[in-house]
Amino acid sequence: MEQILVTGGNGFIASWIIKYLLDQGHTVNATVRSLQNQSKISHLIKMEDDYPGKLNLFEANLMVSGSFDQAMKGCAKVIHCASPFIVGKIKKPYKELLDPAVKGTENVLGSVNKTQGVKRVVLTSSVVAIWGDASDIYQTKDNTFDESYWNESSKLKEQPYYVSKVLAEKKAWEIYETQNKWELAIINPGFVLGPSLQQKPSGTSQAFIEDMIQGKNKAGVPSLYFGCVDVRDVAKAHIKAMDSFCPQGRYIVSNEVLSMLHIAKFIEDAYPNSFKLPKNEVPKFLLYLAGPFQGFSWNYIRNNIGISFKIDNTKSRKTLGLDYYPIKTTLKDQVQVLTNNK
């Protein structure tokens, strides 16, 4: 059993990683932004009680060099999850997204380079580092995205989150190339759904499903497609990639490609007549009229609405051994947690 550092420990994905590591008997050092914010770390405090002496919490700031040094002492592996996930209207993209993502990666890996004993780093990236718009599919072989592609289409003004993930992952590879002490594996998840371990679930995924079950989209949804994946599969992928037998490199972790309407139908199947869910898609011409007022640029509408795509997750299945949760189960479990916490 090893001592492992997980950054961004109170996050959606990181919380499941920590739970699984503790279940396996590892000792976990987890960083959070503040130990004083009890509402955000209450589930981690409970884990401390459930696994005595196995979980140690530290404060760390992505923007401060050396901030992760103390938490990293004695660790053989580092799983770097901490990075902001914000979509929609961003007022200050550098302050809100790019600096925490890129400088945060630089600071964490700077601590890795200073720490004796760290043999492997697993970094959470995203499929948006592989492609930007759905229309990028037309540039691929066999209309399928795989780990060989990089997102070269996203622009800071329109898709700052996407750009932050590209730059952060490239920074990680750049730093990796300057040393020979540690190995690097990158997890590129799709749209992460599923039950949260947080007592008050928050974040983009939770807000997306909450809006749907609260009837905010009952008039109709855009014909948008997502490569969906269960948070528990993403957590397991990080842990599999942590092991030394696993080859270095990128791993797409994504299951079914679904539209927003498909997602609504799966929720309806699991909870018949329980929510005012959308039953129609909004015509594309209406989105051109209303989209700019809702944060959809004309470029985004043109390059994404009504365009499905394929994802090759062979590497995650064969090399990491993932057996993906059906997304129907994922959504059923997520809605159950959200409604139970009301």
CATH homology superfamily:
NAD(P)-binding Rossmann-like Domain
CATH class assignment = Alpha Beta
Contiguous low-pLDDT stretches (5 residues minimum) are: none
Number of domain modules: 1
Instruction: Give a short account of the largest sheet.
Output: 7 strands, parallel
CATH topology: Rossmann fold
Enumerate the strands of the largest sheet in spatial order, edge to edge or round the barrel: 3-2-1-4-5-7-10
CATH architecture: 3-Layer(aba) Sandwich
Net shape: globular
Helix coverage percent: 25-40%
Structural class call reads alpha/beta
Write down how many β-strands occur, each being a DSSP E stretch of 2 or more residues. Answer: 12
How much is the radius of gyration in Å? Answer: 20 Å
List the helices and strands in order: EHEHEHEHEEHEEHEHEEHHHEHH
Look at the structure and give the mean pLDDT. 93
**Residue share in β-strands:** 15-25%
Number of helices: 12
